[in-house]
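Continuing the batch. This is chain 6 of the set; chains 1 through 5 are on the previous pages. Same settings as before, nothing changed between runs. Recording input and output for traceability.
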Amino acid sequence: MSSCATRRSSSTVLKNPSSTQTNTSNRNSPGTTNTSVRKPTSTSGLSYIDQFKGIAIAEMEKYGIPASIKLAQALLESGNGNSTLAREANNHFGIKCGGTWTGPSMTKSDDNPNDCFRVYSNPEQSFKDHSQFLLRKRYEKLFSLNKNDYKGWAYGLKEAGYATNPRYPELLIDLIERYELYKYDLPESKSEKIAREVKVETTIEKKEEKGEVVQAEQIKSPVRMVIHEVKTGNTLYSISKQYNVSVDQIKQLNNLSSENLSLGQLLVISK
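Output for chain 6:
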């Protein structure tokens, strides 16, 4: 339970300079709609994207998972890299120890009190392992989409059971368009797409034959998290009351050392 001082305190909402910029860019993605004003972005989000856009693009070139989708998922699931798993295990997607994993691990309360999670030597390994998680029959039809079709991927992931939050596709799309992550999605020729689809199909079949594929839920729980976007006038206390959680819980989930907030900042409320 938070103290009286915590309840009375007001966290400062800092305006991000990018919140007033006009978005005049045209996207090469299906279903494009232009907006006159770009939504606020957070400095931590921009830094995170700059750090990991390279590995996201490299994995896209290998398998066709849009870089924008991987980055948006990572932003959501790691809280811009501030989650306990991201900080202590370099695990940015909540991948568990199931399957053929023989590497280091850490235990953390999730579906069960002492669930086992994979520990990576660096974050890039986590991004690569996330691709391997998606290379299974459940998600196979997504790889037939164009690798710059981030909207198709967003809705397809939800349909395939990746997340239980009904707004998961909209959350991904909002992040992609707010941070202009679609600019990292590279188009491909028809022949390149065919070659990539064959490679993905072969990879999935080989994993099945070797018995490397176990039930998805044994390795990664469906994303259920509740996310709050900081708006003008929000304080940690007002947000905690809105969701009936403690201020300390929000600070712990998001690795916050102060109560200062930024417009557009994404806060994990519950996992």
